[in-house]
Amino acid sequence: MQVPLSRPDITDKEIDMINRVIRTPFLAMGPYLTQFENLIASYIGRKYAVACNSGTSGLHLLIRAYGIGPEDEVITTPFSFIASSNCILYERAKPVFVDVEEDTGNIDPSRIEAAITRRTKAILPVDAFGQPAKLDIIRGIADRHGLVVIEDSCESLGSEYKGTKAGNGVFSHGAVFGFYPNKQITTGEGGMVVTDDPEIARLCRSMCNQGRGEAGVWLSHERLGFNYRMDELSAALGVAQMGRIDEIIDKRRRVAEMYEERLSKIPGVKVPYVSPDVTRMSWFVYVIRVAVGETDHARQAYIRERVMQFLSNNGVGCRPYFTPIHLQPFYREMFGFKEGDFPVTELLGRTSIAIPFHSNLTREEVDYVAEVLEMALRKAGS
């Protein structure tokens, strides 16, 4: 059996919507773009939404819109996809890493205040794997120190923290969602900035569109901008997907429940922990941990690699999630990071595996993944 790591949930509704767009003259900057922005803003409970071509672009737009630049610092997590730190470097500011909670993989709020300096301008928490960080505590810290909170919600569309949707203005000044094919909903490639601040929305919209002003006058550019626009085909796909958002999240929840039921019985597997404060989990990926009982770092990494190799050899898609950002080659070179700087992040980096996960994963596929995983662990000696 071949079980891919991920697969988008596309139906005839999405295909029909795309076909409609292709029959119109509007393949860019058309009515579906505005409709998609309005749907996301309404769903999250924000006043403004600005569509762009990726979550990475959206994070860059917010960093720039809040005036973060050279010599400024942004506190964030080293346990994430690299874009959440790269977006800070784009503006020649400095990412200041804070280690994470072992159970959730999210930034540890108890470590944040010790990292604040006179150069700190923002906190950028990441909702790892779809689970919102402790956003109320983080916002409280930010308010006490006059900092901006930019929430990387690229993995958490539809999740809720204490009854409030991820990306909502209760906890963050601005947030970004991503719509890559393995996300809860997809536009192929795409992202969305959300905010309640009209000036931030205006700046993001302008910079997204080559720096044009609000009037959108052709070849009239008020500021430095970028070609970060979302095309009309992507927006139409997003509109169709948003019409099914609750259905999709419910399907992902059922798959996660099947995995928990099956994998929690396998010795050597640690299933994902979801905090009681997360009142709805939308499940971006399903990440397990292995070799957690080992104390030797090399042994942990060895077991994880052997398990992944066995899974791959037997048709089960898998990936390490995540490789710590501070141990990426150019971060080591630029900042002098080394192993041991962020021990919890490094522990998660050595022991975590993303296994196949998408809305339409079947019971038969879940059982097969579990059987192969159990064999892999026996062979690896965990």
Name a few traits of the molecule.
382 residues, alpha/beta, 13 strands, 13% strand, 12 helices, three-stranded antiparallel sheet, seven-stranded mixed sheet
What does this structure look like?
The structure is a single chain. By secondary structure, this protein is an alpha/beta fold. It is 38% helix and 13% strand. It contains 12 helices and 13 strands. The chain has helices spanning 12-22, 31-44, 55-65, 83-89, 135-145, 198-208, 232-242, 245-263, 297-313, 329-335, 343-351, 363-380, and strands at residues 48-52, 73-76, 94-97, 120-124, 148-152, 160-161, 164-165, 174-178, 191-195, 269-270, 278-280, 286-290, 352-355. The strands form 3 sheets. A 7-stranded mixed β-sheet has the order 1-9-8-5-4-2-3, sandwiched between helices. A 3-stranded antiparallel β-sheet has the order 7-6-11, with no helix packed on it. A 3-stranded antiparallel β-sheet has the order 10-12-13. Helix 2 (31-44) packs parallel to helix 7 (232-242), helix 3 (55-65) crosses helix 6 (198-208) and helix 8 (245-263) packs parallel to helix 12. The mean pLDDT is 97.
